[in-house]
Amino acid sequence: MIPISNLKSQNAGRQGVAPVIDKEPCLTNPVSQMATEAQCRSDAFYYWCEQTRLPHEPIFHRKLWEYAYILQCLSETGMMSPGRRGLGFGVGKEPLVAVMAARGCDIVATDLDIDEATKQGWAGSGEYAATLEALNDRGICPPERFASKVIYRVADMNKIDGDLVGFDFVYSSCAFEHLGSIEPRCSNSSKTALSACVRAA
After folding, report:
1. How many angstroms separate the CA atoms of 78 and 177, rounded?
2. How many whole angstroms separate alpha carbon 106 and alpha carbon 146?
3. What is the rounded CA–CA span in Å between residue 152 and residue 135?
4. pTM strictly above 0.85
5. Chain segment 116-135, per-residue pLDDT in tens
6. What DSSP string describes the chain?
7. What backbone torsions phi and psi does residue 45 show, to the nearest 5 degrees?
């Protein structure tokens, strides 16, 4: 996804040196990047705000940028198309699931069970969807299509179920920071479980 012309030539062939991007990252040519004000004022950002039915005016909030970034990356890599299978972790009430379903993706949307969500304070926050219908409360996807394209189930990101395999893409937004220490996520068993979710191309 990174054009060779965007990489500084002095790092070419040097082992252990990360490539340096010549220009400021943008949503229309996404790489692994930070959120910037310029991206939140871009046409691509406004477009995904429209698709997710979120505020159009520039709101410099990381969550809105993450939504736009995830959808743009999936769109540019051909993942937002009929027949693609996606797995969302900690989906809350985010609009991404409905946008993906509206474009023909088959999505397994997961989150904490209601007891754990209540204990952690999510159930009463307005950010927890206890039902499938709540994931399409903005009316982004026609209800019949949504019901046929989306499955909602409980999943613990700290202990990924073994049957969550064979997906074309896996994503989460604003979730990792709520999982506790980074060490368990770096364990071999955790990496193996997450890798198994995505099928080989």
Report:
1. 28
2. 9
3. 9
4. no
5. 667 766 666 666 777 788 89
6. ---GGGB-GGGTT-TT----BSS---TTS--S----TTGGGSHHHHHHHHHHT---S----HHHHHHHHHHHHHHHTT-SSTT-EEEEES-TT-THHHHHHHTT-EEEEEE--HHHHHHTT-TTTT----SSGGGGTT--S-HHHHHHHEEEEE-BTTB--TT---BSEEEESS-GGGS--STGGGSHHHHHHHHHHBPP-
7. -65, -45
